[in-house]
Specification:
Elements: E1 7-10, H1 17-32, E2 35-39, E3 46-50, E4 55-59, H2 69-74, H3 78-96, E5 100-104, H4 114-120, E6 122-127, H5 131-144, H6 165-185, E7 189-192, H7 193-198, H8 201-207, H9 237-245, H10 249-252
Parallel strand pairs: 1-5, 1-6, 2-5, 6-7
Antiparallel strand pairs: 3-4
Helix pairs in contact: 5-6
C-alpha cells in the first residue's frame, strides 16, 4: 500500500502491539527509510529531544518501569508535568513527523493535538476480536505487575488472582478511548491480534497492504506472552463477566454467553 502520509500504529494493551510495531517498523524502514520511535507518548519508556536535524531517543533501562510507584503516583504536580511533556513531544513530532513511525496508546495522546494527528497520519488500528480476553490479560498484568517478558509466561495457579472493579474500569476507559478514535478515523487498516498468532509475518504485513518483498531474515519478534486460558486464574471470574456485561464494551464487543 502506497501512501503519502506517514503511518502510526494505534493500539491498546495486550493486543500484540510490540511484535506488530517491530514488524511494521522494520518494513517501513526497509522500504522508505522511515525510522520507528516506539511508544512515543508513553513517558516511562524513553526520552526524546530535538538534535537539530531530527528526533533523538534514549530508552530507559529496566523498560516500562524506570520510576518507582511513589514517583509516578504521589509526587505533587505529576499530572501537570506529564501533560507538559506530552505537549512538548507532540510539538516536536509535528516538526519532523514525515520521517518517523510511532506506536500510540490513545489515552496518552494530548487532546489538543488529536485533530492534527488524525489528519496528518495514516492510522493502523490494532485490536483483539475477543475484547473480554484482552481485559482478562490486562487484569493479570495489573495484579501480578508483569507486563512483558522475554519468553511466554507460565499459567497461573487456579483462582490465584482477584481482580478489582477499579482496575477493570481503568482498562475499560483505555479501550473506550481507542474505539472513540477508531470511529472518528474510519480506518482503512484494522489488524487483529488473532491474525498475528495464526499468520506468517509476511502474510500479516500483506493484510495491512504492505506487500513489497522486504527481507525478514534475522528479524526477531516478541513472543505471545500468555498463550493459555486466562479465566481460570481468577477467583472472581463471574464478577468480572458481570462488570463486562454492564459496561459499554459489551455493546462494542458482546461477551458470549457462558
Amino acid at each position: 500500500m502506497e501512501n503519502t502520509k506517514p503511518y502510526l500504529l494505534c493500539a491498546t494493551h495486550r493486543t500484540g502491539s510490540t511484535p506488530v510495531y517491530q514488524l511494521v517498523s522494520h518494513y517501513l524502514q526497509a522500504t522508505s527509510g522511515v525510522v520507528g520511535l516506539g511508544e512515543y507518548f508513553s513517558r516511562y519508556i524513553a526520552s526524546y529531544w530535538d538534535n537539530g536535524a531530527g528526533i533523538s531517543v534514549f530508552h530507559y533501562p529496566n523498560t516500562h518501569e524506570p520510576f518507582s510507584p511513589e514517583f509516578r503516583y504521589n509526587v505533587g504536580g505529576r499530572l501537570e508535568l506529564e501533560e507538559k511533556i506530552s505537549s512538548m513531544r507532540a510539538k516536536l513530532l509535528r516538526k519532523y513527523h514525515s520521517r518517523y513511525f510511532i506506536k500510540l496508546f490513545p489515552h496518552v495522546l494530548p487532546f489538543e493535538h488529536r485533530e492534527w494527528m488524525l489528519s496528518h497520519y495514516e492510522w493502523i488500528f490494532l485490536e483483539r476480536k475477543d475484547v473480554f480476553e484482552q481485559i482478562l490479560s490486562c487484569l493479570i498484568c495489573h495484579e501480578t505487575g508483569i507486563w512483558y517478558g522475554a519468553a511466554p509466561q507460565k499459567a497461573l495457579p487456579l483462582g490465584s488472582l482477584k481482580a478489582t472493579r477499579e482496575a477493570f474500569e481503568n482498562f475499560e476507559l483505555v479501550l473506550f478511548n481507542y474505539f472513540q478514535l477508531k470511529m472518528r478515523r474510519n480506518p482503512a487498516i484494522v489488524l487483529h491480534y488473532e491474525d498475528l498468532r495464526e499468520l506468517s509475518p509476511r502474510a500479516f504485513l500483506a493484510k495491512a497492504g504492505f506487500t513489497s518483498n522486504v527481507s525478514l531474515t534475522g528479524l526477531k519478534l516478541t513472543s505471545v506472552q500468555r498463550p493459555w486460558t486466562k479465566s481460570a486464574a481468577f477467583s472472581n471470574i463471574s464478577e468480572i463477566r458481570k462488570w463486562y456485561r454492564g459496561s459499554l464494551l459489551n455493546e462494542l464487543a458482546p461477551l458470549a454467553p457462558y
